[in-house]
Amino acid sequence: MDSSEKLNVALLGLGRAGRFHIQSIQSIPGINLRYVVDVDEPLARRLAKELECDYSTDADGPLGQADVDAVIVASPTHEHYAQIQAALEAGKPVFTEKPLGSSLEEIDTCFGLAKRSGLPLFVGFNRRFDPSFSSLARGVKEGEVGVLQMLRVTSRDSPMPTMDYISTSHGIFHDCIVHDFDMLRFITGVDPVEVYSVGSSFVEGIGALGDLDNVLVALRYDNGMIASIDVNRFASYGYDQRIEAFGSKGMLQAENRSPVSTVLSSGDGLLRPTIEHSFPTRYREAYRQELVAFSDCLREGAPMPVTHEDVRISFILSELGEQSHREAKPLRVTDHPALKHSPMEDPEK
Amino acid sequence: MDSSEKLNVALLGLGRAGRFHIQSIQSIPGINLRYVVDVDEPLARRLAKELECDYSTDADGPLGQADVDAVIVASPTHEHYAQIQAALEAGKPVFTEKPLGSSLEEIDTCFGLAKRSGLPLFVGFNRRFDPSFSSLARGVKEGEVGVLQMLRVTSRDSPMPTMDYISTSHGIFHDCIVHDFDMLRFITGVDPVEVYSVGSSFVEGIGALGDLDNVLVALRYDNGMIASIDVNRFASYGYDQRIEAFGSKGMLQAENRSPVSTVLSSGDGLLRPTIEHSFPTRYREAYRQELVAFSDCLREGAPMPVTHEDVRISFILSELGEQSHREAKPLRVTDHPALKHSPMEDPEK
Amino acid sequence: MDSSEKLNVALLGLGRAGRFHIQSIQSIPGINLRYVVDVDEPLARRLAKELECDYSTDADGPLGQADVDAVIVASPTHEHYAQIQAALEAGKPVFTEKPLGSSLEEIDTCFGLAKRSGLPLFVGFNRRFDPSFSSLARGVKEGEVGVLQMLRVTSRDSPMPTMDYISTSHGIFHDCIVHDFDMLRFITGVDPVEVYSVGSSFVEGIGALGDLDNVLVALRYDNGMIASIDVNRFASYGYDQRIEAFGSKGMLQAENRSPVSTVLSSGDGLLRPTIEHSFPTRYREAYRQELVAFSDCLREGAPMPVTHEDVRISFILSELGEQSHREAKPLRVTDHPALKHSPMEDPEK
Amino acid sequence: MDSSEKLNVALLGLGRAGRFHIQSIQSIPGINLRYVVDVDEPLARRLAKELECDYSTDADGPLGQADVDAVIVASPTHEHYAQIQAALEAGKPVFTEKPLGSSLEEIDTCFGLAKRSGLPLFVGFNRRFDPSFSSLARGVKEGEVGVLQMLRVTSRDSPMPTMDYISTSHGIFHDCIVHDFDMLRFITGVDPVEVYSVGSSFVEGIGALGDLDNVLVALRYDNGMIASIDVNRFASYGYDQRIEAFGSKGMLQAENRSPVSTVLSSGDGLLRPTIEHSFPTRYREAYRQELVAFSDCLREGAPMPVTHEDVRISFILSELGEQSHREAKPLRVTDHPALKHSPMEDPEK
């Protein structure tokens, strides 16, 4: 498309993630919200009026519109796979929240379809666009810490999700830790050879679901590097997202962010306000930047920042992490069925 | 106006401040940019097309438009006074960057006109809307530091403004320190009884203009409280804006903000990235919040957060601060001609 | 002994640790250095003159002195076992740097001897006396973080030890990580049920010794708590010693310390000085406090802060950690031979 | 004296400051406490026994002792002048807490006597030896901030001194701010040309004494530099001692210190422990370093780090600061009687 024109997008899903994308779209001059879709008709109608765009209760609604340049999939998780396929088949580039589907096969199908049709399929691993995390990744690549030896990701959610959400989330590995696995790949550019997980559950209800809320993952790389991921479903003090990269020449850390920069000194000590409460404010800039990046891919042919391989590997590591916990032993990454015969080979080739 | 409808605004001036307001407007669902004005016709035309609104090179252009609900004055300083009057006379509420005019009389004239016509006149003392400064002010009011004894404002600009800008800026007191005087009033709710300034100039060219680039102001309050303001035209490490409130029970500080939260530890020490580079990013949220507040005044009849008295007093203190430096002696605030016979009386009554 | 009198001590070993104890002794009014021992006769003579005390090149020298109230063992590691036994047999209470010996049997022998003779045997797990770590442990015990779920210890040495030192250090688990295992026990009061280690070597020479310089240990507790220890032989930015305790109600962290509290803000960012360079300054107060505690045990009959069980368990975990790395699998703590038949039973009973 | 021998000192005064010097002396191998003096005979006797030295209730006691190499004056303020003179006349080098006397004449007399007798007279401006402040001063001298433009000293005491202490303290300028004036000189190496003070009193009883507890001093330098000092008798959150140096190339700050490095994150925010409670812990290292420096002057002939001129100027500025507050106007430094006819001339010549 002509890079001087606005990108007209259709947004599928007006829930939490959808409303968040609306906010990003409004702040990006080059993107125009052209169409919204939600099964809740009154909601879709009201927002369409407010946002001065068309609406439908049917995800196919915008696919026939010639002036819809791309589709953003922010619908409930189980609808992603069908909607991605339908959009690609209708010739529309797709931006989608993860997951693409519930299995590696579905992921491969989506990317295969995108490849055959020559259309961009952009997966929203938003943390790659966070200014602090991307600055850390750049610093590591530029050698600021020398040879990377230990990489630690801390990722604790806030507020506590509802049990409804958790029960349909496919488990903490596929719902949360997949992002942390992607961070490791984003920063290091290489994949681990072994994964070991220890997990437990403290929150009533989560254990009963067979799910975990407290997990430590240890990863071994064949160059001697070691990584750890520690995750919790709920941090009482806010959305705790930190990364620490230690190497021969130094350490690079990305710390939490606070919306307010005050300090109250009293006889009780020095009190700073809580960190960002949740992902929408913590990653506001990241969400905005990833839509800008998506727009750049479409309008300027920029390369896709998240590849098929990236999505595959983070899915595979999530499966292995879960299995390692279940079997209480470390697992070799190349023993995963999808990699056994062609370890780490690029599935796109 | 109906609070469910969008507020249609005309923006006068598409320079630095104007473009900044565009960004804020785009992020506020309830405000719609209906009209832009700039003497640079190609610029006005281009932005109008991009933003899908009307344009003119004449500030009177939008005043006759029935569907323009309010005017935002972001034009060059010397045009403010005439444009504010014209807008109010045309029955349009006004949001304006300071200054309203070049004298106390002009300020009084603008507010008198607004009062007679029953129209809101909103002055953009944006720092009042900064999350950290407003949190500090709230904490002080709620007694977090006990009896306030010492209030310190540090305000250092970045990057260095051009000599062109400085030569038409009315001097550092009216251009910069007026904001800091307003912060004192915002936090304390009372006015000083005495002002003393020490100033100097380090930057070539500024001294030749008879202006200052390095200033300390000491203020005495009749309840024993003391305040200081220290200001510089240029901080090499970024836009340095801090406030410290010390009282009988503790200290409340608002610290600088950084866009990136990394720390690099090496043999050289612990390095954090520079703080926000300049006012547009430092006060991005403040700019946004003040437009939301303006909208609330218009749509919901909320009281004006910045009063005529606020604007007068900060202007008077700027005059006294400048005079104190010139005469190298402390000046009593009630000796100012505008207050001599009716000290601190509300000019609106 | 009479608590109003000074405690006269003999110091075995005038190397790095010995000289450090001298500094602590000098700052504690209630302890008097009465005797120093080192095989280096000129060194022992010189220091004895300077410190106004007796000296010998023979560790048995002070044991016959009636006015020596206690012995501090700071000699080379391989001499500890014999010296501890000789001192206890001579009726002298013993303060000793770890390790007590090179096997669990030797540890048990020392404590058995101490028990039979009714003499205090104090093991210098100095980190328990660090003001920040002990404050963190107290906070966790008092419930400041609610139910403890994840405990992380980071421990990176500085400066790089010599190869001579490393080659006789019994490996990174027994030399370094034993302290971190003790921290876990100190903070939680319970022991893990499973240990898993990943280790590697980046420093030339260390791998050739069969030793590691980069290790991550993951520990599982039967109440669902998880712990991690990450250790490196060398941090280029100083002695990096941190602990983070995460629980249902919050997080408690003990951060690094800096000798100087300056910040330099420039166009490069905000630079703070490096953290403490090495253990003698980082733990100066801890070394002092542990000697005070030793003195309190002797003079006031205070209970021993480090028990036989504490020393045993940290040794067992070090063995298991090493074995887990070697066998690349998690190990159950109760499978250790010393615990197999009587898991976690108190060996003193 | 022979630099290999210990320095034997007599300590006059066993009050707060005296006991503090004892702690420093005990931690310095090269200094030996030989003699203590206090009018409280039981106290002197008890400490002498404990410290294994001689004692007297008469300040002249140690002056005739051949093996007393130097005298440390830490007695009540009003005794300093006579004791300094007596010690110098007895041929003993003197380390003294400020003030030397109650007037400029007494200061000049003491230094005159020291000069004539060729004996060191060392005045304990301990902050010059604080690692953070001396690092800041070094950084400024080495050009880390470029041309110095604004220097700010914050100095708030903790805990609140007793009214007894305050009533005999010679007022906040001579008791407290004199140290801050010395810091300005220490950092800049030059003197201000004008002083202006604003002061008030919030603490019951202090105002009745005609004294102040809340003061801001503004200082003008003839190179355009500006300085401010803000002082309070009591900070509820601990001993608040900070310096900020702003210049053309950056800013250098010395921040407060905390004895414990923990952070508690909870729903209330991020809580760090209070800063150092009071001067003995805040300046522990500074007190130690200044005794080492005194010892170096005596044993190695090192130059005196605090000169007669330093002591004079800080006294003169304290007088001017007090007078400026009283007369509510800025005062020219060269108008001070002691400088009027020979501004800033070195009184030693």
Model description:
The structure is a homotetramer of 349-residue chains. The longest helix of chain A is centred in the C-terminal third of the chain and has 20 residues, at 308-327. Chain A folds into 2 domains: 7-123, 3-Layer(aba) Sandwich (Rossmann fold), CATH 3.40.50; 128-286 and 310-340, Dihydrodipicolinate Reductase, domain 2, CATH 3.30.360. With 349 residues, the first copy, chain A, is an alpha/beta fold. Chain A contains 11 helices and 15 strands. A 7-stranded mixed beta sheet of chain A has the order 12-11-7-10-9-8-15. Chain A has a 6-stranded parallel beta sheet with strand order 3-2-1-4-5-6, with helices on both faces. In chain A, strands 13-14 form a two-stranded antiparallel sheet. In chain A, α5 (131-141) crosses α7 (171-188). Chain A is 36% helix and 23% strand. In chain A, β5, α4 (104-117) and β6 (121-123) form a beta-alpha-beta unit. The first copy, chain A, is globular, with a radius of gyration of 21 Å. Chain A has helices at 16-27, 41-51, 80-89, 104-117, 131-141, 163-167, 171-188, 279-282, 284-300, 308-327, 337-340, and strands at residues 7-12, 31-37, 54-56, 70-73, 94-96, 121-123, 148-156, 194-200, 214-220, 226-232, 240-247, 250-254, 262-266, 269-272, 331-332. Chain A binds chain C through residues 146-147, 149-150, 152, 156, 194, 196, 198-202, 214-216, 218-220, 224-226, 228, 230, 232, 235-237, 240, 246, 248-251, 328-330, and chain C through 146-147, 149-150, 152, 156, 194, 196, 198-202, 214-216, 218-220, 224-226, 228, 230, 232, 235-237, 240, 246, 248-251, 328-330. β12 (250-254) of chain A pairs antiparallel with β13 (262-266) of chain B, so a sheet runs across the interface.
